[in-house]
Known about the structure:
Rna Polymerase Sigma Factor, Chain: A
Amino acid sequence: xxxxxxxxxxxxxxxxxxxxxxxxxxxxxxxxxxxxxxxxxxxxxxxxxxxxxxxxxxxxxxxxxxxxxxxxxxxxxxxxxxxxxxxxxxxxxxxxxxxxxxxxxxxxxxxxxxxxxxxxxxxxxxxxxxxxxxxxxxxxxxxxxxxxxxxxxxxxxxxxxxxxxxxxxxxxxxxxxxx
Length: 179
C-alpha cells in the first residue's frame, strides 16, 4: 500500500500539471515563480484530495485549488506593489514572437492588473480559458449569481480600460472582426 501512494501522486501530477500551470500562468501573467506556485498547488491538492467526495470532481477540485493559489498570489503581489517591493508583471511568453503581439499581451495584463483579484480571476477563467459560467463559479468558489455579477463588472471595467488604451482597443476591434 505504501508503494501505491507515490505512484498515485505521480499520476495525479502527470495528469494535471499542464492544467495547473496553464491556469496559473494565464491568471497571473508571470512565469518567474510559476514552478513554485504549481508545486504549492500540488501540495495543497495532495493534502486535501481525501476530502473529495466524488472522484469525478477531481478536475474541478484541481482547478479550484489552482485558482485559490492564484488568488493568494495576486493578493500578495498587490501588497508588494503597494509597498514598492514588486514592479510590473513579466509575461509568460517564450520564444521569438511578433513585437506587436508581445506589446498587446503586455497591455492585456496591465488591464487585468487594474481589475482586482476576484474580477480578474472570473474574467480570465471565462474569457481566456473559456470555462462555462458554472465552471467559473465553481473554480472561484462562489454561486452562479455572484460570478455573473463579477463578470459583468469585470467586462465593463475591462472594456472601459480597453477603450482608453489604443493598443487594446485595436486588439479588441481585430478580435471582433475575425469572430
